[in-house]
Design goal:
By secondary structure, the chain is an alpha/beta fold. Helix content is 58%, strand content 12%. Among the domains are: 98 residues; 50 residues.
Length: 333
């Protein structure tokens, strides 16, 4: 059977059209038969995401955007179909998808992996999170800075107004006078510093002599170090002997001796004992005085009239004079 050229051209044309459709769908990231691993995500703002845009995880592309559609016809929920390159990806069920818009390049959907041990199943819906975007983040970061800058300018303006109100004519004159006083004070301080320096220069000799004396003193201490050590050793021995002495016993014995002396003095002061009577009885004192006086008279009489008491002469006469009645020192002073 012979095929005509027209049939061949029609068949080739049909095959070319089919291949063109399949290639165009492949370039868009969609397949004719919709085979593979799919996930679904819903966003309030698609942020310019398009079909065939990449899907990444930790910077690695794991798929492409397969389809974008409006879910409830109100344009408030955008449903995006995510086609994964392989069916072996294990995505935890607490993961979420986020649109990363790039004004200088192609926007993408990034899946932030969670920590769950349970993984998303085929054709399941993944959680989503709205991202601020680069421009929004920049705007949100600039807005507080602008507000703060406005507040700073307002404060600076108020400060300048206060400064202008303070620096009137009188204030300026006072400020100039204050600066002049400061200059005068600075000059005085310079003069005082020069005088102080001169005085220190004059006293440097005295200070040097004092330091020499201190050096001599320390040298003497170093030279007599052995004697000082011996003295300290003797003091330590003395203190050790004192610490070991029976001071308490000595004090007790001294107290006992003082008590006995007090008892003896008490007996002397009383008239009970002989010594007390001897110390306190005036009659005994008078008798002793009279006895001593009589002894003195007898001795004086013996000296004056020895022949009355001792007669050793054979031819002598007996002394018949009157005896003395008082000591010679009383009768013949």
């Amino acid at each position: 059977m012979k095929i005509s050229n027209e049939t061949k051209v029609g068949a080739l044309t049909s095959i070319a059209i089919v291949l063109l459709i399949i290639g165009f769908s492949f370039l868009k990231g969609t397949g004719i038969f919709q085979t593979g691993e799919f996930l679904y995500a819903e966003f309030e703002d698609a942020k310019g995401i398009k079909v065939s845009n990449p899907i990444t995880t930790n910077g690695y592309q794991i798929g492409t955007v397969s389809k974008i559609e409006n879910k409830d016809k109100t344009l408030k929920r955008i449903k995006i179909t995510l086609k994964l390159n392989e069916s072996s990806y294990q995505i935890p069920d607490d993961s979420y998808a986020e649109i990363s818009s790039n004004p200088l390049g192609v926007s993408s959907i990034e899946i932030k992996l969670g920590n769950s041990n349970t993984f998303l199943k085929k054709s399941s819906q993944i959680k989503t999170q709205e991202s601020a975007g680069i421009l929004s983040a920049i705007t949100n970061g600039i807005t507080p800075a602008v507000e703060q800058l406005k507040t700073t300018f307002h404060t600076l303006d108020s400060t300048l107004k206060n400064i202008n109100s303070v620096f009137d004519a009188n204030a300026k004159n006072n400020l100039q006078q204050t600066i002049a006083n400061i200059n005068h004070l600075t000059t005085s301080l310079i003069t005082s510093a020069a005088s102080l320096e001169k005085m220190l220069a004059e006293q440097s000799g005295s200070i040097a002599k004092t330091m020499d004396n201190m050096n001599n003193f320390t040298q003497n201490l170093a030279a007599n170090n052995d004697k000082i050590n011996n003295t300290i050793s003797n003091i330590e021995k003395t203190t050790n002997n004192l610490s070991q002495a029976d001071i308490v016993g000595s004090v007790s014995a001294l107290k006992e001796s003082i008590t006995k002396i007090n008892d003896l003095l008490a007996k002397i002061n009383s008239k009970d004992g002989s010594l007390g009577l001897l110390m306190n009885d005036k009659t005994l004192y008078n008798n002793l005085t009279n006895t001593v006086r009589s002894a003195n008279i007898l001795l004086d009489d013996l000296k004056t009239h020895p022949k009355r008491y001792v007669n050793i002469s054979v031819f002598g006469k007996k002394d018949k004079s009157t005896p003395l009645t008082a000591p010679l020192n009383e009768t013949n002073p």
